[in-house]
Specification:
Radius of gyration: 19 Å
Strand order of the largest sheet: 2-1-3-5-6-4
Strand content: 15-25%
Number of helices: 10
Number of domains: 2
Catalytic activity: shikimate + NADP(+) = 3-dehydroshikimate + NADPH + H(+)
Distance between the termini: 41 Å
Largest sheet: 6 strands, mixed
Keywords: Amino-acid biosynthesis, Aromatic amino acid biosynthesis, NADP, Oxidoreductase
Organism: Dyella mobilis
Shape: globular
Pathway: Metabolic intermediate biosynthesis; chorismate biosynthesis; chorismate from D-erythrose 4-phosphate and phosphoenolpyruvate: step 4/7
CATH class of the largest domain: Alpha Beta
Helix content: 25-40%
Number of strands: 12
Bound molecules: NADPH dihydro-nicotinamide-adenine-dinucleotide phosphate
CATH superfamily of the largest domain: NAD(P)-binding Rossmann-like Domain
Subunit structure: Homodimer.
Order of helices and strands: EHEHEHEHEEHEHEHEEEHEHH
Structural class: alpha/beta
Length: about 280
């Protein structure tokens, strides 16, 4: 009997991951049989675990999550433009010659969730991005390409925000401000929380003045990690407040397409996960 095609998600911790059930649900749409498992690798064991998975266990593709996205980018043999811009990878694909290609699907997934699922036209928006880590870097480029008028990046450590704005290199549209100035920088049409504060169990103290009259708010985290930011957004009068569950499903769909050459229908999978988490 032939062995099932092997896929995995690497993280630390990783037991909580929804990726196995998302990929199995996508595979069922096409009648594809595959194995998709979680692999918990501590940072110092990550590179060896990836090599073993691809070289000895016949791995075809892997998702990568915290804290390994920088390491995944570094160990790949080739990198997509989105991965290079972000400096991180959330997808690894084994090429026909055995080399590994790194991709980053986070930014495109987040923008598709906002525009396609939540029906938001980002063109002409003044957007505020909180955070300048790996996910924020991916999201910043995608928001910029989606046509926001201005993108203001604010990070607790200002150097990372400055480096991201410099990398985009459009000073007329992309600015940085200091975290301590959040109360004085006016209001925005879109506020995106790309910090890991919620995931780390920490809360952000944000002024209501950031929320403009037509503002949408988006937290890249999902489930309980997003509750604090979304509660703040609703209390401040945001018209929409969404968590990153849709982004999670969309980035998985992008990975699925890279590996299987087919585009799954994300709607039913998103519906089923959001019903379960509400
Ligand atoms: P990184 O570790 O690369 O970056 C973390 C960012 O959060 C940095 O900008 C850091 O600032 C900031 N930060 C952390 N704690 C605080 C705090 N208490 N106050 C203010 N800023 C803080 O993480 P990622 O970019 O990879 O992930 C960010 C979030 O996005 C995570 O919650 C992750 O789960 C989520 N995510 C969701 C995805 C999805 O599919 N829905 C996909 C990818 C990520 P500093 O530079 O000062 O340390």
């Amino acid at each position: 009997m032939s062995r099932l095609a092997q896929f995995a998600v690497f993280g630390h911790p990783i037991a909580h991951s929804l990726s196995p059930q998302i990929h199995q649900a996508f595979a069922q749409q096409f009648g594809i049989a595959l194995q998709y498992r979680t692999i918990d690798a501590a940072p110092d064991a990550f590179a060896d675990a990836v090599r073993r998975f691809f070289a000895q266990e016949d791995g075809r593709g892997a998702n990568v999550t915290l804290p390994h996205k920088h390491a995944a980018f570094a160990l790949a043999d080739e990198r997509s433009q989105a991965a290079t811009r972000a400096g991180t990878a959330n997808v690894l694909t084994r090429l026909a010659d055995g080399r590994l290609a790194a991709h980053n699907t986070d930014g495109a997934a987040m923008v598709r969730d906002l525009t396609d699922r939540h029906d938001l036209d980002l063109r002409g928006h003044d957007a505020l991005l909180l955070g300048a880590g790996g996910a924020a870097r991916a999201v910043a480029w995608s928001l910029f390409e989606a046509g926001v008028s201005t993108l203001t990046i604010v990070n607790r450590s200002p150097e990372a925000a400055d480096a991201l704005a410099d990398a985009i290199g459009e000073p007329a549209r992309v600015h940085t401000r200091y975290w301590d100035d959040l109360g004085h920088i006016g209001s925005f049409d879109l506020v995106v929380n790309a910090t890991s504060a919620g995931t780390l169990g920490q809360s952000l103290t944000l002024p209501f003045s950031l929320i403009g009259s037509r503002a949408a708010c988006y937290d890249l985290g999902y489930g309980p990690s997003a509750f604090g930011f979304l509660a703040w957004a609703r209390a401040a009068g945001a018209r929409y407040a969404h968590d990153g569950l849709g982004m999670l499903v969309e980035q998985a769909a992008d990975a699925f397409q890279l590996w299987h050459g087919r585009r799954p229908d994300t709607g039913p999978v998103y519906q089923s996960l959001s019903t379960r988490s509400s």
